[in-house]
């Protein structure tokens, strides 16, 4: 059996072998994972994928089949392949918990390990966290416009493969969805599974009314009838009303019942349907809608006064319409020469692309009175901020901008948690419902200005004075090499 140890880019393995043959593979080093700009032109990213990542790291090893395959490529020598037989992850990982709201340049995850371990983890780790954080963020954008309406994840058939469908459904939950139509995701992650019916059900009966009656007989407690197969207002809604009336008379009408609209003008049709339901005494019927929806369209439909209170979102969520990928990167920020830590920097002509050297954490400043986030500070690990002193902030991007946060008006939280120490999992994995509650809490601590879809406010993120000084020093030292 092949394993996920091969789920990597070839260059990671060739570099691992190269370092092994040069005797450098065990050099201890530190890598940061961060991203440079928010997806969807938004104001934040919701971190997701940690549980999947933990599973990957906990199980990573090379099987006999993996080694045989690598041997057959002709690229790898026997000595290196023998080394791989007993290879495993022995380092430390620190990360932001799933559901954390994060901002550009912040350390989302930090790995301390032998260099070959960092290399092998990079690709898969990035794939997992880039994907799941992207979908959780997209879902959260949908949640911010949907208010308290129900949100159903319907994307599996349009997902870019099995894994994207399954982990996408889980990420949608972290982003605030209520359930998924994806049954495997339901089984694996204990996510509520939800569903209505397809047009083929309605077409399987001589009439729409018979189709609705048969469904009501079989699933009296999950009664969302798809009303747009023939003619929504002339036939679908009246047929649904007939069935609801029959159930009401028989005393079998469930607490939650309603219709789904899947085509046409969703604002107009939903308002008309609501009027017809109210006239017939079914004013509390659910009106669900689907059809290529996303956060922009839902917001637009709400502006038009639609009467929809349940949304099925598929394609545009699961494929992250608008941002095909979260550009998270994994950069070396330092390595050990014996016992001496040597901070490292990635140079670039573009100032924003120059990395922050050193072992860092993120300190989040919350306003004590409102509980809202005020700023994030990328600080050296172990650095603290005294909340009983005034806090002076100076923007990294615009050094002429500054802010003062008065003493005793704020709280400081450290965002990275230890996940693995010396290769051992030390993190108590929270349940998905705890992750969702934490994600909701994180979003509640973000002012609406940062959540809006268009031109959101940018969170104040800056380096601490110590990180800035270290960056200047390393930049100066590196620049000397050019003369
Ligand atoms: N009131 C509205 N305002 C803006 N967009 C809407 C409105 N109602 C529906 N839409 C969106 O317009 C797009 C086209 O919908 P429409 O039902 O006309 O075409 P369709 O998807 O091709 O229909 P069908 O599913 O019958 O083939 C969909 O993304 C739908 O969600
Ligand atoms: O529109 P989405 O957000 O992707 O939501 C999922 C769609 O999947 C189903 O459609 P189906 O596959 O039957 O095709 P359709 O798009 O032609 O209705 C369902 O009726 C939704 O329209
Ligand atoms: O249950 C539904 O209504 C459903 C499921 C998947 C895709 N579209 C709709």
Description:
With 483 residues, the protein is an alpha/beta fold. The chain folds into 2 domains: 4-136 and 323-482, nicotinate phosphoribosyltransferase (Alpha-Beta Barrel); 137-318, Aldolase class I (TIM Barrel, Alpha-Beta Barrel). The protein has 16 helices and 21 strands. It has helices spanning 10-21, 50-59, 64-73, 78-85, 115-146, 162-174, 183-189, 199-203, 208-218, 232-250, 266-279, 295-303, 315-318, 432-444, 448-451, 465-480, and strands spanning 28-35, 45-46, 92-95, 101-102, 109-114, 150-153, 179-180, 223-226, 257-261, 286-289, 310-313, 328-337, 340-343, 360-367, 373-380, 391-394, 402-405, 410-414, 417-421, 424-425, 461-463. The strands form 5 sheets. The protein has a 7-stranded antiparallel sheet. The relative contact order is 0.15.
């Amino acid at each position: 059996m092949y394993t996920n140890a091969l789920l990597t880019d070839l260059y990671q393995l060739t570099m691992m072998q190269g370092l092994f043959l040069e005797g450098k593979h065990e050099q201890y080093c530190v890598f940061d994972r961060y991203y440079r700009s928010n997806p969807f032109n938004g104001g934040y990213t919701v971190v997701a994928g940690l549980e999947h990542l933990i599973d990957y790291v906990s199980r990573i090893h090379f099987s006999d089949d993996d080694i045989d395959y690598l041997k057959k490529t002709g690229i790898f020598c026997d000595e290196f392949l023998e080394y791989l037989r007993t290879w495993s992850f022995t380092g430390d990982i620190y990360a932001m918990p799933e559901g954390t709201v994060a901002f550009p340049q912040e350390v989302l995850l930090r790995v301390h390990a032998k260099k070959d371990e960092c290399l092998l983890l990079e690709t898969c780790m990035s794939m997992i966290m880039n994907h799941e954080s992207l979908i959780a963020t997209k879902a959260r954008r949908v949640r911010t416009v949907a208010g308290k309406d129900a949100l159903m994840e319907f994307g599996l058939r349009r997902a870019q493969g099995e894994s994207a469908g399954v982990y996408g459904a889980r990420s949608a939950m972290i982003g605030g969805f209520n359930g998924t139509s994806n049954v495997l995701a339901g089984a694996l992650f204990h996510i509520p599974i939800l569903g209505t019916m397809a047009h083929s059900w309605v077409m399987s009966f001589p009439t729409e009314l018979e189709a609705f009656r048969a469904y009501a007989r079989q699933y009296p407690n999950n009664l969302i009838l798809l009303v747009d197969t023939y003619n929504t207002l002339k036939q679908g809604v009246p047929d649904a009303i007939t069935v609801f009336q029959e159930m009401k008379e028989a005393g079998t009408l469930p607490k939650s019942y309603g219709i789904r609209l899947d085509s046409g003008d969703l604002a107009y049709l939903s308002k008309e349907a609501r009027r017809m339901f109210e006239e017939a005494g079914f004013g509390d019927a659910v009106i669900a809608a689907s059809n290529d929806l996303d956060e922009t369209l839902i917001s637009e439909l709400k502006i038009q006064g639609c009467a929809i209170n349940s949304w099925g979102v598929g394609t545009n969520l699961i494929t992250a319409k608008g941002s095909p990928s979260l550009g998270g990167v994994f950069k070396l920020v330092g390595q050990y020469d014996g016992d001496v830590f040597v901070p490292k920097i990635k140079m670039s002509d573009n100032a924003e692309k120059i990395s922050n050297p050193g072992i860092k954490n993120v300190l989040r400043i919350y306003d004590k009175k409102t509980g809202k986030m005020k700023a994030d500070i990328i600080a050296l690990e172990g650095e603290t901020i005294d909340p009983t002193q005034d806090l002076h902030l100076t923007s990294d991007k615009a050094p002429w901008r500054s802010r003062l946060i008065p003493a005793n008006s704020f709280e400081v939280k450290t965002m990275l948690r230890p996940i693995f120490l010396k290769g051992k999992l030390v993190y108590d994995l929270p349940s998905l419902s705890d992750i969702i509650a934490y994600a909701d809490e994180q979003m509640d601590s973000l002012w609406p200005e940062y959540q809006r879809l268009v031109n959101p406010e940018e969170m104040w993120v800056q380096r601490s004075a110590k990180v800035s000084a270290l960056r200047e020093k390393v930049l100066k030292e590196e620049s000397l090499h050019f003369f």
